[in-house]
Request: fold
Amino acid sequence: MSIIVAGLGQCSLDYLTFVDQFPVEDTKCEVSPWVIEGGGPVATALVALSRLGVKTRFMGVTGDDEAGKIIKNGLAAEGVDISHMLTEKCGFSQTACIIINKKTAGRTIFWSRSLDDKCTVTESFLKGAKILHLDGLMEDASINAAKTANALNIPVMLDAGSVRSKTHELIPLCDYVVCSEKFSETYSCSHEETLIRLTGAGVKFACVTLGGNGSLTMMPDGRIFYHPAYDIEAVDTTGAGDVFHGGCIYGILNNWTHEEIIRFATALAAMKCLKMGGRAAIPRAAEEVGKFMYRQGFRSTAVSQKRQP
Ligand SMILES: Nc1ncnc2c1ncn2[C@@H]1O[C@H](COP(=O)(O)OP(=O)(O)OP(=O)(O)O)[C@@H](O)[C@H]1O
Ligand SMILES: [Mg+2]
Reply:
């Protein structure tokens, strides 16, 4: 397949475990066996796309430690092109400790970022790319990457998790922005206002995700489209947002309508929540998503009719 999604962002090694309830400070708490898996917003979105049959290319940094090897091997095993990744000598790869509450499936993430922002997106990294996906955490690198993509007429998707010091510089360079509830609450006084501000800055596709409460999307005619989350027995919500972005990008590549894109992304993210970890439950074919939607009662989508690019 010739379509390429290029992504620049964080990649980490996640250590995940369940607790029955959150412990109080200064106590000991026995947990379930740890699950170790690669993570990071852009890296996991690319894994989702790769499993759906889209060619992907990732740029990010790891250290030259054991964690870095596991992160890179995990991406390569998913078919993500990692040839542009950087390895920092004597550096510690980003790691995250993720504690999942068994009762709510909510995840609490403790993470560290020890590596410098040294990534430079070049024309060769973007060669053949139909979209560039960013998480904006490496602020200067993201802005430079978005400018390079703009100059090459490659649209940019931003996974906006938090408002950072250069967010206001980055947003006008982006065509698609899917932001978290936390981002929206800092960015403006209401989710509606966030969508209005984003589209006012030139963003063509703006969406706020609300965890288990679904999402709000600005439609081309100025209406705001609410889509509930699927009513599932969620096991772990780690990476739901990352996978939701993968689903949105997949729909954009297929030229689906805003509504079709959101229905697909919502289903893909819900499927992810059915197992522990950010990646374990991501389906390996778009048809699986169509079947899930059908079982859940959404029969009028284009997913089963339109094939992947
Ligand atoms: N408990 C859940 N049940 C079903 N779907 C969920 C659940 N939690 C999240 N989702 C789906 O995933 C989407 C994205 O989730 P969320 O808003 O939590 O992303 P986020 O804030 O970016 O978090 P992260 O990136 O850490 O996963 C939601 O809009 C929803 O469609
Ligand atoms: Mg997110």
Summary: Residues 39 and 300 are 33 Å apart (CA to CA). Confidence is low (pLDDT under 50) at residues 299-309.
